[in-house]
Amino acid sequence: GKGDGAATANKFGALSQTTGNNFNTLSGGTPASTPAGGATAPAPAASAAAAPAGAAPAANPAGKAPGLASWQDFMNMGIHTGIAYAGAGADTATEWGNGKGDGAAT
Predict the structure, then answer these.
(1) Computed over its alpha carbons, how large is the radius of gyration of the chain?
(2) Distance in Å from the first CA to the final CA of the chain
(3) Rounded distance, CA 29 to CA 104, Å?
(4) What angle do CA 41, 20, 87 make, to 5 degrees?
(5) Measuring CA to CA, which residue among 41, 46, 49 is closest to residue 68?
(6) In 3, 15, 47, 66, which residue has its Cα 20 to 30 A from 105's Cα atom?
(7) Torsional sign, CA 69, 75, 76, 77
(8) Are 22 and 43 in contact (CB under 8 A)?
């Protein structure tokens, strides 16, 4: 094989760190750290997906602290995260199928 899986592990490890940072940011915290290489996915801004640019902000729903993300922001981040993991898995499968991935026959 071509490797011990380190490149694939690093790819998914960085994606996992980015995911944790993005959800922590949505929760009102700050990112724990930046993955190797500085790659981070942008967290959606609160209400950015729901309102066009220049639109008045939505009223603050009862029980929601000002400045914190809404359930839609978390849902959108979950969708983004699922797509990112699916893409990383597809890339790994393609690389492996083409004989270029970790553990692929040489």
Answers:
(1) 18
(2) 6
(3) 40
(4) 50
(5) 46
(6) 15
(7) positive
(8) yes
